[in-house]
Amino acid sequence: MYQNKRAAFYTLGCKLNFSETSTISRQLKSKGFIITDFDRVADLYVINTCSVTENANKNCRRIIRKAKEKSPNALIIVTGCYAQLKPKEITKIEGVDMVLGANDKFNIPNLLNNLNKKNKAEIHGCEIENLEYNSAYSLNDRTRSFLKIQDGCNYTCSYCTIPFARGKNRSDSIENIVANAKKIVNQGIKEIVITGVNIGTYDNKNKTFTNLIKELDKVKGVERYRISSIEPNLITDEMIDVVKNSKKFMPHFHIPLQSGSDLILGKMRRRYKTKLYLEKINNISKKIENVCIGADVIVGFPGETDEEFNKTLDFIRKLNLSYLHVFSYSERENTQAINLEGKVSKQVKSLRSKQLRILSEKLQRKFYEKNLNGNFKVLFENHNKDGMMFGFTENYIKVKTKYNHEICQTIKSVSLFNIENDGLMTAKFI
Ligand code: SF4
What we know:
About 35% of the residues lie in helices and about 20% in strands. It is of the alpha/beta class. The protein folds into 3 domains: about 5-125, Methylthiotransferase, N-terminal domain (Rossmann fold); about 145-370, tm_1862 like domain (pyruvate-formate lyase- activating enzyme); about 375-430, CATH 2.40.50. The strands form 5 sheets. Strands 2-1-3-4-5-6 form a 6-stranded parallel β-sheet, with helices on both faces. It has a 5-stranded mixed barrel with strand order 15-16-17-19-18. The relative contact order is 0.08. The structure holds iron/sulfur cluster (SF4). Iron/sulfur cluster binds near residues 155, 157 and 231.
């Protein structure tokens, strides 16, 4: 029915959104659509939005305008977390034909009767109760794939809207996830990033996240797995041991900290305090040699005085972290945090972000220096940027070398010999 019709996609936000867009694009391809780039003429544009992005509305408008300029008669569908949270707001944006909530995100083929533009934007599938689980994995980047294992979250962090956008915790079966990992490998992809909203809460037929990674470890042909962000309170000794003893699970963890002040962690309703975080980091570092551990930190949460912020700085200096991802707190409607006292000004937030970014650079530099002259295996990517190409070691050190088409998507043994001015490492092939 849609032979020779063109569909284009735009994804905002996280790895999970990328895995889901890729899955929607395969659904449409199977209906006859030709998948094209977003900046090309198309008959259908699908925009997968994020609610964490600041200025979600502004971003959405900008992207829709771009699509409209290219193809004024194309059907425009908006889905994703922002669509789930603010469907009516999106229907007011000129050019939008359909807004799909979490319940109909994967239902586009059935909702498309034709590709004619609508007189009035329609809203579908925004009921958040009893959401189904939909498997997803990305195939657009030939080096790595984001494999979704779980969706939703039952936690109640006071600043977060994700549970409202993605519903309750639900997990795919181990059989399905393993089958998807095999499909990814069959496409020649070398690295799989295990992705979800709160992956440590994985639970399917009483199987835990550790049960899952043990099974994934057995899948033939996968060269590398990375575990995306995992809550510190959900990391177990057994899980660390699986990673330690596996040849496929990379020595790399990303563990959100958010604050180094117990007072602020309490206000955030996080499920751990600094003592537990420190124990987990020390335990991982003790067990896995040369491990890379990254952390997310939020600055400017209500009540974060200079004293509490300094606790974060001091705490991070005590930890064996290799990099930080720094976010400025921004208020979200319907969250508990919006009513908390002690708002922090924009200027103070930006100053604190800067301080943490400088600290992150120092941590990364220290980690890279520790690994200088070491021998590693690097998975090189396809991208050619000004004659250079990039890749990551097992422990997530970013390496650059002269572009050579032949080593794209391959794993090569290297010795790291220099840290360049841009902070990346250069390597000798061995
Ligand atoms: S763990 Fe907290 S921050 Fe993460 S998705 Fe769940 S509620 Fe949001």
